[in-house]
Amino acid sequence: MKYAFIQRNKLVWPICVQCRVLLVSVSGYHEHLARRVDIAQRRHLSDEALLVHISAVYAENRGAYGWPRIWRQLRAQGIRVGKQRVQRLMQKHGIQARGKRRFRVATTDSKHGLPIAPNVLDRKFIVAAPNQAWVGDFTYIATDEGWLFLAVVIDLFSRKVVGWSMRPDMQRNLVIDALEMAWFKRNPGKQAGLIFHSDRGSQYASDDFSAVLNEHGITPSMSRKGNCWDNACSETLFGSLKVERLYGQRFETIREAKDETISWLLWYNRTRMHSTLNYVSPMQFERDWTDATVKIAA
């Protein structure tokens, strides 16, 4: 209010006199004007200039973002623009996220006589802290050299992929290596009360995998028979990977597929906005939680 009064009356009284009477600084007044000019410039971006920003965000994320995430990223970059305007421009110029497709993944071999763990997780996908519940699953990627199988371990707290493994076969070492990577990176400790949830596949029910869980003090949990919704988070992750990065690509070698998959996993953890995390990345979500926890403890 004071700065607005000074601006309206700058031709009547000197600015320095008004600032002294109103008990504000001259530098503060000029900073206020600079901020208003900056905001005005952002609000009045031409469609052509805004389209450049939209295209840059779209390209940076390799076509994975639709208008809601692009609008949020523009806002995070300080570009003040309405969501309807972003949506309109993207529709007008044919800029859209890669289309969703249904991928059938038939990797689960549940026809075996190995022990089946109860469904301890019971679809409780929202947890209060890291390293309380992990989920694991694996899928396949086609290459000219044959199949590449990808196993992941996801921390349900932040949806971060904390462990992964890739092999040209789907033997039990595929899922064991992913779990060992997650344990090495997170190191939750045997007393953490960690739950590991998976499907009923023979790899997860094997004696070797069960021995690793027992060694680390992890409680096993398995989906009900034929119920993919019990492990919906991993299904969602694999769908995003294939739609946002792998669909439409042909890999001549397994090495090419590995490189592209690792690139996406790192982008997913570090950058990708996650709708269930209030549109921040898994790593940012964990940093924010850690900062808040430290403040509360202090």
Write a brief caption for the model.
With 298 residues, the chain is α/β, with parallel strands linked by helices. It contains twelve helices and five strands.
Structure description:
It is a single chain. The mean pLDDT is 86. Helix 4 crosses helix 5 (67-76) and helix 5 (67-76) crosses helix 6. This protein is 48% helix and 12% strand. A hairpin with a 2-residue loop joins strand 1 (133-143) and strand 2. The chain is built from twelve helices and five strands. The longest helix is centred in the N-terminal third of the chain and has 18 residues, at 26-43. The protein starts with a helix and ends with a helix. The chain has 298 residues and is α/β, with parallel strands linked by helices. A five-stranded mixed beta sheet has the order 3-2-1-4-5, with helices on both faces.
Q: What structural keywords apply?
A:
48% helix; single chain; 12 helices; alpha/beta
Element layout with pairings:
Layout: H1 2-8, H2 15-22, H3 26-43, H4 47-60, H5 67-76, H6 83-92, E1 133-143, E2 146-155, E3 160-167, H7 172-186, E4 195-198, H8 202-205, H9 207-215, E5 219-222, H10 232-246, H11 254-270, H12 282-297
Parallel strand pairs: 1-4, 4-5
Antiparallel strand pairs: 1-2, 2-3
Helix pairs in contact: 4-5, 5-6
